[in-house]
Amino acid sequence: MEFKFDWEENKEKLEDFKIFIKENRNKQGALMPVLQKAQALFGYLPEEVLQIISKDLNVPLSEVYGVATFYSQFSLIPKGEYKIGVCLGTACYVRGAQDILNKVVETLGIEVGKTTPDRKFSITATRCLGACGLAPVLVVNDDVYGRLTVDDVEKIIDKYR
Asked: Which keywords does the record carry (predicted)?
């Protein structure tokens, strides 16, 4: 699923962003703070914004893209309103977390790392969430669900639909 960047919807954000770039373009190491600002403003790094960064900072697009894809703090796709994370740390994994994750993928019809077309849900596979005693664990935004079975997944997702 490819998401279309809405220029009109983001007009004010783009104006603020271009001002931020202008204020930072001559600073050493400007690329990271500019990418961070873009991520904060837009919630992800649309290709169109990466092109603006490249042009306005006079940095090759390949370098901008390389930095954006290297650091996990950046995302090239929008995240959903509800971010679902399934822990695949050791305790969760040995207690069936992969089956839980598979059921989330099946229920939402998207792969790990993707967002539903309506931008309602995103799925990530995480490492230890620090709730090993509750394994396996699934998190929806700040809500933690533990001691899960595959049968629990659809009921949890339905709460957010």
From this structure: Oxidoreductase
